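Recall from the previous chapter that SMILES is a line notation for molecules. Here it describes zinc ion.
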Amino acid sequence: MITSTQTLPAGYVQSAEINLKKDKRLIILLNIVAFFIFILMFYLLSGFTALVRPDIKNFSATITIWNMLSLLGLTVLMLIIHEGIHGVFFWIFSRSMPVFALRPLYAYAGAPAWFFPKRQYAITTLGPLVGIGAAGLLLLLLAPINWAIMTVFLVALNTGGAMGDLFVFIRLLKCAPTSFANDTGDIVTFFERP
Ligand SMILES: [Zn+2]
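With both inputs in hand, we obtain:
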């Protein structure tokens, strides 16, 4: 089995790079796509909630002042959980502390000293999208009625916010099964054997 390493095996060369530090156009594009995905997911998840929670008759009537005040705090908490999930997988696969940072248009977790095999990096990249998505769907089924709309908002926001992760994942899919990825946080580099 291929494991993570701090030294690339012989014969590997860089095959691609996604650089959020240099590529400002990509950041703006990802944020525009994120906005539309957020709207779409909000719409779809509201529909899903109406289906599974027929006890909720009117969504807007379920919103309280307390919910609105909590929303900002919950959004920050969700961002921390999102990056935390990336970080936990970086730690599981490398057994060393990842790095975290917040930029104006994105937040990140990274492990600059490590090269992760394709499968490990795929799990690390998609972890927050899948994990928070699954937890959110469960909450929509079980949460108190007046929290449903907040959950819809947060899951939609997380899905939109994961467009960068999805972009990296799709590029990773094109790499060979034996390839490695290095993630500094805002620069992802892929390495393959030619
Ligand atoms: Zn992410």
